[in-house]
Amino acid sequence: MKVALMVTCVNDAMFPETGKAVVRLLERLGVEVDFPAAQTCCAQPMVNTGYLDEAVPVVRTFVEAFDGYDAVVTPSGSCAGSARHQHAIVARRSGDPALAAAVERTAPRTYELSEFLVDVLGVVDVGAYFPHTVTYHPTCHSLRMLGVGDRPRRLLEAVRGLRLVELPGAAECCGFGGTFAVKNSDTSIAMGADKARHVRGTGAEVLVAGDNSCLVHVGGVLSRQQAGVRVVHLAEVLASTEEDAADEPPQTSPATAVGRAPLQGERTP
Known about the structure:
single chain; 8 strands; globular; Rossmann fold; 10% strand; 50% helix
């Protein structure tokens, strides 16, 4: 099986450890992973803000980079959802039959990480070890657009040492939503505060999700509240082993390391 990693532009720019974790995890499971250097964005930012014509060359770059692989795996339900559902809209609008045909090949072969592990590889116990109390936030696109269901939870429940606690209001949006967080910042902040309150109420040490964009948002709120809860991407939990436990558990980025003191001039709620 020829498998490609779609790392996503957010992870490439801010959270490279997440992409590395996907490679470590898949290689541990016997999968050979390629990283097409030509990959860029999935085109979701353009599509979500109504720039469908501007999204055409981005989708074309995507299919050129990933066409020919048996599977494209990404640590993002948001980006997988874009490839599976939005690319066809963009291709049809372009009037380019070659692009539409390429999208028909790549879209159904694009998987969010938990989908690929459970549905394609047929594994739930990936040999991970993460001795912490964890709560899980199902991100909007993975939950509603992809329908990943309980796959991430099943993977987490099989991790040795991990105690999974229920997150109240788990299916509620965290409030990020890309440009929504900028254009509707007050609403976004209020939704993030609600999610952070539910996370704190669980008593969990770590908040896990399958999209770093959501973890940045909720993690930022938790950080400013000095909640003492860390945020970690699902891939990094599943890639963890006993050897990793000897060191400090993985963190997605210093930007999302919560529990720190406020920066100079920073106000807390």
